[in-house]
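Hi, here's the filled form for the chain we discussed.

Project: internal
Contact: R.S.
Residues: 381
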Amino acid sequence: MIRLKRIGFADLPLHDGKAPPWLVERMIKLAREIVTIIVDEYGREIFLQRVSDPYWFQAFGCILGYDWHSSGVTTVLTGVLKAALRERDLGIAVCGGKGKASRKTPSEIVEAGEAFNLSTKKIESLQYASKMSAKVDNAAIQAGYSLYHHAFFLTEKGNWAVIQQGMNVNDRTARRYHWLSDQMESFVVEPHKAIVGDVKRPIALDMTAKESESCRKTSVDVSKERPERVARMLKAIRPACQKSLQEWIPDMSAKECKDYIVEFLKMPFTVDWKALKRAYEIQPRNYEELLNIRGIGPSTVRGLALIAEIIYGDKPSWRDPVKYSFAYGGKDGVPYPVNIRSMDESIRILKEAVERAELGDRERLNMLQKLRRFVPPNAEI
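And the returned structure, exactly as it came back:
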């Protein structure tokens, strides 16, 4: 079974417009050289570790001249990296992208895998990783964000990372999710190494939390029942006049919670009964197998969790898994004061990659001198 690790996500405001062509062209050129240096000096796996770090990823966007806090940094930077890596043979490929491009991820994984001479079994496992990372962030964690961007990084050895982003159209923010194929123990049990965001939601359904373990197990057990019995369970615990989950979710007295919750946690009238029939036929052994079933989406996950708690007493976690704030802050204290330590660490990583690179031609040496302009001369390393 393929395993991966999400190491962070970030909340970002949605900005309109596109990056100008003159900037994108230069971003691609600069990104190509920086990535080349990192791969030459540290290797492909270190590059995956760094790009899967939300702080480093955001710092990289700043180095390339993009907004520090815009949601567009995700789509633009992954697109820039996709173009940069395509133009230079570094043994790394980027598949997928924004909107329609994300749906091409499976076929692009095949193309890249074949170019890297990976086995058919390995390519299939990479496609599974791509699918499950999206399924977990879209259904197992529900905080009001629908995925619209999915980028899958892979190396010629079959290691990979995922950077994907979801949108909340009500408050016009985006949340970015980072995954890494290193030391992953479970898709569905706290797969994050770091979770970052400006906004901590008052209520969020997190079926990946350790506290949700019993709810996950019971949800699997319920999914193995005949769909007719599951329907009777839902009908028995849902008052006829109830239109939302507000009576089920704890701590709903605050007005902000009531206004927020109706955005996405609707009562599961739209449970996919065909998907539950498939679950009954498949008899999933665990929650990961349940999520992998076609048609098991947010509403069905909520419906099963509702039954698990109300009938069997196995509660899910309603805590938003965001743990600390995103990026460095701003010089004027907006959204918060600059985090000097984190900023210096990002500078150190980039500066070390540049200074320790062993370059053999004069043209590259000149390029490195230009890159030094991006590092403040008084930065303490």
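Let me know if anything looks off before we file it.
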